[in-house]
Amino acid sequence: MADAKKRGFKTVETNYEEAESQIRRHRRKIIRRVIEAAILVIVLVVAIELLYALRSFDSYEIRNSIERSNTDVTQFAEYNDYILEYSNDGISCVTRNREMVWNQSYEMSNPQTDICGKYLAVYDSGGNDIYILAEDGLQSQVETTLPIQTVCVAEQGTIAVLMRNGTEAQVKLFGKEGNELANGKFYGDKGGFPIDIALSHDATKLAVDMIDVSQGDVNTTISFYNFGSVGQSQIDNNVGTYTCEGILVPEIDYLSDTKMLALGTGKILVFDGAQKPELSQEILLEQEVLSYFHNDKYVGIVYDNIEKENLWDIKVMDLKGNVVMENEISISYDKAEFLSNNEICVTNESECEIFTMHSIKKFSYHFEKPIYKIISGDSGQNYIFIFKETTEEVKLK
Prior knowledge:
By secondary structure, the protein is mainly beta.
């Protein structure tokens, strides 16, 4: 101690507990400020997104316009990041800038398409030709012996085909190479007649939708078939049948490997099951439905507005029957559909209305030329408008 005084140093007693307490308070203050800043950023982001979600637009500006030379009967479909253009003499896959990916020629009277994942089938409804295609083009061609009613494609290229000729109907499965995998026959004189089919995304399950009017009443029977190990132990691979008494079910569709949707008169049915599908949801509808549309998460319905003339009501529900969107359609519509961003697009030859899941009418417009297709873009205000002679990239304003 004496040595310390000689050198001019002073001894200081340190309170370590007080120092640690001050450090902890400082750290808590920093953490609190970081959390407050993060919450502020989140609130701002949510506010901006909500602002855009609640905005409405009545005009647009053209960012890019590309001329086309399609015929009047050309149809368009969205195919992953591409656009399909198809007509009686062929189908083309193009980028959104209309650069050619592939082109396939054919001769069909009534071409229709079905898409699942990277695969698609284009078929001649009422004819005999099917083309199985993917992102790299043609995989195989199938020619049927009976006229085609509908075709479903799975995500690995397997297709199910419903064919019909008079009182005889036949369902066949083909691999993507065009090889026959399975088949079954149905005869109308036995009471039931197929009107639709649905193939699961993994191609292991097939549903056949049959109508029966033999007793004077309309009844619908949905039969489920399993082509995996579970179905091999069952007669004709049939793993279950569900009867809808007194209603017509004109459309069925698998939404995934396990979930199937059935759209009926006055009723929506949801079936679920990895091996043996069972009814998981029954949604009763109070009004007569004019049209259905759906994607893999939601079902949309359009029905008459009973209080106002020349208006229609539109409603969207999830697969449990919860209403997530409602609004009014003020144009005489030809088609209602989901866009890839879950917005709802209603169109006729020259008008469109776009609705959001927040029940906001986002865009309403009367065009000076026929509108064929609307595709959502890479942001909330960007879209692709496909007109009779041009494809336009636009931004709503």
